[in-house]
Write a structure and sequence with these properties.
Elements lengths: L5 H8 L5 H9 L5 E8 L3 E12 L4 E8 L6 E5 L9 E3 L4 E3 L1 H15 L7 E8 L3 E2 L2 H10 L2 E4 L21 H7 L20 H14 L3 H9 L26 E3 L5 E3 L1 E3 L5 H6 L5 H23 L12 E5 L5 H14 L8 E4 L1 H4 L6 H13 L3 E4 L13 H13 L8 E6 L1 H10 L3 H4 L2 E5 L4 H14 L3 E2 L1 H17 L8 H21 L10 E2 L19
Length: 550
């Protein structure tokens, strides 16, 4: 049961302050099929259940919302299985079977019923409860492991009316509900919108505004949620103070009086942990980063508890090794933000430099440029891309001076508030380390970025296409898979672009798709987002050279 899905992620973010408004918006949008049933046997026979389904070319997501019909009270949740008994929730003078467990067991039933549709379904459960779950924070990870979100402290829960949109044109949501009919206790009276929850004028205005902005309906919903106007008249959510903007420098490096260059500065991310977790592949990289962060955080705890204790030495300087398109720059940006969150860096931004940043036209430009770059990168990460280009075979190459100056400057204890990352391809980076014995000790953290497999590249494609709300038809998706597989099998491994190939191929597809839509405008609005086989034209890749001889 996977959960990397927009519909599910949006439900997981909701609280008791904005869930009702969110459900109202869902009922008014034709992209989501929703249905209401009164009870599911045997575990939720007396609970109102609401289904929400959203379909893309790659998968259909299902969210099951269960209304907890117990009298609201203060309760302690305990999901531990007892001998011959179900998990319980305890109140002051009584206990009851855990509604989370009941929902979990029901979700397993549902999963078995829709297994005939294949593996392209993702599931999540949401329990709406009027009780105050006193240990809700402690139980969050347990519930997360059960693929369930609990929203408690909901006042007047029994009096709420949730509207649904069970329009049969929203395929295949109605098929899913049909597959579950034998589980339902009885047909439920429904309050349905069928695309008319808004007045006709309001709905047309929303449609025009959505088309004008060209954003997905999930982004639209989240934008509305951020207004914090509770549709049920409950108190507005307190607005947190905005974090001060990070004052980043311009990035201009003056190599000498007549020459200047500009480095790219990447600002820190708001939620780097989530960005790291959602990366495709990179499992070893994630584990190594977690190890480094754990020791960094431990040092901080040790320092706070025992100020005079000796700290573990933690060097943040690292080497990223991998072929093109394996995610080195992306991970570097996340790396800086995570180190900032852990308290190891004061800012967390990333400064991207290369050989051209340091090598000027006059003697002395290298040291002048390097000192400026290090000053700009203070508090964050200095990423030197294709670092091996600083180490040519020529004895008088000024790049060698840059490396020596860098190691000397990093030996200065005042340079602790910085992490330097040397990036490059595997073989030339190994030669760089072999020819410079001092580098491995200054850069003890080596991260090796493996090439993506075909399945991982297909998953990257799914996510990128979904960001723009495009949809492959099944023939188009099969054609894309064939092109990707052929390119992967026949490529030159040293120049294979990995995720860059996906980026370049999708750009070509979008251009072909746009030309087709302009020449022959689609009859239906949804067809503007549909990618057809004729939109997919393969791009050229460098092929591996055949071997000569035996």
């Amino acid at each position: 049961m996977t959960t990397n899905n927009r519909l599910i992620d949006d439900f997981k973010k909701k609280t008791n302050r904005n869930i009702w408004k969110f459900l109202d918006r869902m009922a008014g949008n034709y992209n989501v099929y929703s249905e209401h049933v009164s009870g599911i046997t045997p575990h939720l026979e007396n609970n109102d259940i609401y289904f929400y389904t959203y379909t893309t070319a790659f998968e259909t997501s299902l969210v099951v919302v269960c209304i907890d019909n117990s009298i609201p009270k203060d309760e302690i949740a305990d999901e531990e299985m007892l001998p011959n008994e179900n998990p319980r929730w305890y109140s002051e003078n009584s206990y009851r079977t855990s509604p989370v467990w009941s929902l979990f067991e029901t979700m397993k039933q549902i999963e078995q019923k829709v297994a005939v549709y294949g593996e392209d379904w993702t599931y999540w459960g949401v329990l709406l409860s009027g009780s105050n779950i006193k240990n809700a924070n402690d139980m969050h990870d347990v519930w997360e492991g059960m693929c369930i979100t609990v929203i408690d402290n909901l006042p007047n829960l029994s009096k709420k009316t949730i509207k649904v949109n069970n329009d049969q044109e929203i395929y295949p949501g109605d098929l899913l509900i049909g597959a579950l009919q034998d589980l339902f206790k009885q047909p439920a009276p429904v309050v349905t919108t069928n695309r008319s929850y808004y007045t006709e004028e309001e709905f047309e205005a929303e449609q025009k505004e959505e088309e004008k902005k060209e954003i997905s309906f999930f982004d639209w919903l989240n934008a509305l949620d951020s207004e914090n106007d509770d549709s049920n008249g409950e108190a507005e959510e307190e607005k947190s103070e905005e974090a001060p903007e990070l004052d980043l420098p311009s990035g201009i490096i003056e190599q000498n009086n007549i020459t200047s260059v500009t480095v790219k500065i990447l600002p820190p991310l708001d939620n780097p942990r989530a960005e790291l977790d959602k990366l495709v592949g990179c499992h070893d990289i994630k584990e190594r980063i977690d190890e480094l962060l754990a020791l960094t955080r431990y040092n901080k705890l040790l320092r706070e508890a025992f100020p005079d204790a000796k700290q573990h030495e933690v060097s943040l300087h690292s080497i990223f090794i991998g072929h093109p398109g394996t995610g080195k720059t992306t991970v570097c940006k996340i790396f800086g933000s995570l180190l900032h969150e852990a308290g190891a860096l004061s800012k967390g931004h990333v400064v991207v430099a290369d050989r051209g940043t340091f090598i000027g036209s006059l003697w002395g430009d290298e040291e002048r440029s390097l000192r400026q770059v290090l000053e700009i990168a203070q508090g964050g990460v200095l990423m030197i891309d294709e670092a091996y280009l600083l180490n040519s075979s020529q004895s008088n190459d000024p790049g060698k001076l840059v490396l020596q100056l860098l190691m000397n400057l990093l030996a200065d204890e005042s340079q602790r508030d910085i992490a330097v990352v040397l990036c490059g391809y595997e073989e030339p980076m190994k030669r760089l380390l072999d020819l410079n014995p001092g580098l491995p000790s200054r850069f003890p953290n080596q991260f090796v970025f493996s090439d993506f497999s075909v399945d991982e590249l297909l998953e990257i494609t799914r996510r990128r296409v979904d960001e723009y709300n495009y949809h492959f038809t099944q023939p188009a998706w099969q054609k894309f898979k064939d092109i990707l597989t052929s390119a992967y099998q026949g490529c030159d491994q040293q120049t294979w672009g990995n995720a860059r190939f996906v980026t370049n191929q999708l750009e070509r597809i979008y251009i072909q798709h746009a030309q087709r839509c302009v020449k022959e405008p689609p009859q239906e609005k949804w067809q503007i987002r549909e990618l057809l086989p004729e939109d997919i034209k393969p791009i050229e890749v460098v092929r591996s050279k055949p071997r000569i001889g035996f």
